[in-house]
Known about the structure:
The complex is a heterodimer.
Chain A: H1 2-27, H2 40-68, H3 71-103, H4 111-132, H5 138-161, E1 171-172, E2 175-176, H6 180-226
Antiparallel strand pairs in A: 1-2
Helix pairs in contact in A: 1-6, 2-3, 2-5, 2-6, 3-4, 3-6, 4-5
Chain B: H1 3-21, H2 23-42, H3 54-79, H4 82-88, H5 93-123, H6 131-156, H7 162-189, H8 198-223
Helix pairs in contact in B: 1-5, 2-3, 2-5, 3-5, 3-6, 3-7, 5-6, 5-8, 6-7, 6-8, 7-8
Amino acid sequence: MRRWVRIVFEVTTLTTMVGALYAIFLYAPIEKTMGIIQKIFYFHVSSAFLSFVAFFIVFVASILFLYRRDRKWDILAQSSAEIGVIFCTLVLITGPIWAKPIWNVWWTWDPRLTTTLILWFIYVSYLMLRKMAGEGQRATFTAVFGIIGFINVPITFFAIRIWRTIHPIVIRSSGINITSPMLNTLIITLVAFTLLFFHLLMARMRLERIREGYEEMKALLEEQENR
Amino acid sequence: MNFLNKVRTIVWKDFTHELRSREMLISMCVFSFLVIIIFNFAFPPGVEDVDWIIPGILWVAFIFSGLLGIGRSFGVEKDKGSLQGLLLCPVERGTIYVGKMVGNFIFMSMMEAFTLVIFTILFNVNLFPILIPLVLIIVLGTVGFTVVGTIFSAISANTRARDVMLSMLVFPIAVPLIIASIKATGKILDGKSLSEIYSWLKILVAFDVTFLLVSYLTFHFVVEE
């Protein structure tokens, strides 16, 4: 039954991804002033959204791990951090590709850009810490860092915001600043990326469990050989 | 013993250790002296427009030298096996954290006072008229830096490549602190009043309070075996 659910989920993810590609390149109109380069916006916004979701999951899973001491929360935090870093890297790659023709520079020290870059550094450090810490303390150390790192994000944003921003603000509290085919495309892409994210997350967690099982078996075998 | 007495005892222990070895304070001061000398070659004083890089030079010296000392605070305990003894003290883990943090803060402040003197002499900048607001900014910035530095020192003492790991943990987290301190110092040097740097001071205070609380609450997870 579980296997069946998984196959349905995977097929849905795949179909939505293809649907999103169709919407981006064939359904959504070409933007008047920016031209074809504007299409990167759909990937950019979706990746940014999911990297925040991923880091929020790291934060919640870290707190739960410290209170419950259950390995599964640590696995969730680690998997989510890894995928979050991938999406965050995508944001940092797609952003400059769009910015070069539009702003005429690859990079500017705007609050959103700088905060995203710092965010990326925090979670790269998080993954480094996981690599460098000893087996026994790895989970607690990264959980503490995952909590501190996430709380730091709004403070960083406010500190950097005191300079003026030039990042386009597409989504305001008053409404959305784009035409409806574009909005539909954005929504489809967001859904597709979210499905992809959870697909990757589950695959990564499964992999971690298999790896753990393998380590346990290896330790058992070694113990028997030593006898 | 109440909380303050316990903290004082831990701070005094670090002080006695430092008085006997004099390792940490001297290395911090010499390092910050060197940083200033190197900046002196990079940006010779007296050259026009040198004023706006002064806060940057000061804070780079403070932060790099401070990190050197903070990294040792738990590194030494771990190497000499005295961390076990410290943890066996009949006090709460949070108290040990505060004691260590206060100790780091005092050592870092001493190094900063020394740096300011050297800086005034070598860069020929008169800091006396703005000393009070400057000290306020430095104290707020140093508190924040030692707050996150102390807990990350406890973490990195147990990892491989300890020093690299400590920098990788502290710097991304300390970004808002560094921005606020450098910007506030720059404005004060420009002759602006305290009310004009109010928003930066707010960020510094928010950073200090938030991370003091979070570190105090999570420290016992870090040191448990």
